[in-house]
Specification:
Blueprint (H helix, E strand, L loop, with lengths): L1 H4 L11 H14 L7 E4 L9 E4 L16 H13 L3 H17 L13 H11 L9
Helix pairs in contact: 3-4, 4-5
């Protein structure tokens, strides 16, 4: 109940895989969109690889339609960079995603827009200095 009433009060959720999946999707939904929520399954002693992925997973219900918001995957990559100690890459990727959202020109359907997955990805790449021009 606290997660639903005060989602801003939580930075980390520690749970089993099943409950963690349910709680992270609820948290993402009540704070704006599943398309924005990154996640990580961490191995703290680093004896095995950790996994970084969007909270929504592969979103098979919309696969191939070009309507998925890629920001959760992009922000998951930023989390991975952070975990690997790559501070500059973390800041660059996270900053590009945040600035793209802040500007508001490119919005996927989950955010009330009509942009395609590729449009959002291209807009983030422009802010990273890897793209040519921001999509219309």
């Amino acid at each position: 109940m606290m997660l639903i009433q005060h989602p801003h009060a939580f930075d980390v959720l520690v749970a089993s895989n099943l409950f963690g999946d349910v709680l992270s999707e609820i948290g993402a939904a009540i704070t704006g969109s599943l398309g924005l929520a990154p996640s990580a399954n961490l191995n703290p002693p680093r004896t095995w690889p950790s996994m970084f992925e969007p909270v929504h997973g592969s979103a098979p219900d919309i696969a191939g339609q070009g309507v998925a918001n890629p920001l959760a995957a992009i922000l998951s990559a930023a989390m991975m960079f952070e975990w690997l100690g790559e501070g500059d890459a973390t800041a660059a990727v996270r900053g590009a995603a945040i600035e793209t959202l802040r500007e508001g020109r490119v919005r996927t359907p989950d955010l009330g827009g009509t942009a395609r997955t590729s449009d959002m990805g291209a807009a983030v790449l422009v802010r990273l200095g890897a793209g040519r021009d921001t999509p219309a």
